[in-house]
Amino acid sequence: MEIVILPAPSDVARTAADAIEQQVRSGPSVLGLATGSTPLGTYQELISRHRNGGLSFASAQAFLLDEYVGLPSAHPQSYHSVIREEFVDSVDFAAGAVHGLDGVAKDLEAEVARYEAAIAAAGGVAIQILGIGTDGHVGFNEPMSSLASRTRIKTLTQQTRQDNARFFADLADVPDHVLTQGLGTIREARHLLLLAMGEAKAEAIAAAVEGPVASICPASALQLHPHVTVLVDEAAASRLAHREYYQDTFGRKPAWQGL
């Protein structure tokens, strides 16, 4: 893992956008998109670069990490709708280039198999954006998920439902089940970009980066990947015990940007 500690959330957003822009400008790319509050600043930065800097997504494809079971794509809290509102509709992806799971598919097992096949047919994800939950989950791979898991149906923990209740009118409206890429699926992306901001994520980041690889902290599985960049602000880095080994001199570039 390459750990990059930055002064503020805005710096995390800009540095993440740098990585994605570099990938997109290199040629046709497959992006892995996450929803939630963590990547919002990154998406806003990419939208600005599209409008003001000529960054085009016209030759890119994208795959979403997950989707709620039972929410049609038109529901305002489906991740199809959320990613369109937060990012996709503000840039120039081609029609049909952004792919998601169908949370109302009649056969959910067939749907997750279809999705795995679609990612493979696209050549795999080049760069995957990830957030981390307060319990260490990535995507909707909750604690005790298999570190080799594939895209599948998962039951949400009560903690995750409570964390996501702010997006719904009431906790009772938060679905109990989701479709999510598995940890094994996620780790097949060629570059993983894990973002975290704020004191609330500090314990999870410390466990993911410095703790043992264990299913109790699903994000710790990312330690097994050959190309992970962890971008954190000072607050999210506050519980890291070994900062002397990390890129926390603010003027330095991450390794993927060159020396």
UniProtKB/TrEMBL annotation:
One term of GO molecular function: identical protein binding
Summary of the function given for this chain in its UniProt record: Catalyzes the reversible isomerization-deamination of glucosamine 6-phosphate (GlcN6P) to form fructose 6-phosphate (Fru6P) and ammonium ion.
Pathway given in the UniProt record: Amino-sugar metabolism; N-acetylneuraminate degradation; D-fructose 6-phosphate from N-acetylneuraminate: step 5/5
EC code: 3.5.99.6
Gene Ontology biological process terms in this record: carbohydrate metabolic process; glucosamine catabolic process; N-acetylglucosamine catabolic process; N-acetylneuraminate catabolic process
Activity regulation information from UniProt: Allosterically activated by N-acetylglucosamine 6-phosphate (GlcNAc6P).
Domain annotation Glucosamine/galactosamine-6-phosphate isomerase: ranges: 12-223
CDD domains: GlcN6P_deaminase
Segments traversing the membrane: none
Active site: 66 (proton acceptor), 135 (for ring-opening step), 137 (proton acceptor), 142 (for ring-opening step)
Protein family (similarity comment): Belongs to the glucosamine/galactosamine-6-phosphate isomerase family. NagB subfamily.
Keyword tags: Allosteric enzyme, Carbohydrate metabolism, Hydrolase, Isomerase
Protein name according to UniProt: Glucosamine-6-phosphate deaminase
UniProt-annotated site: Part of the allosteric site, residues: 145, 152, 154-155
Gene3D superfamilies linked: 3.40.50.1360
Stored HAMAP family: GlcN6P_deamin (MF_01241)
Superkingdom of the organism of origin: Bacteria
Keyword Isomerase in annotation: yes
Gene: nagB
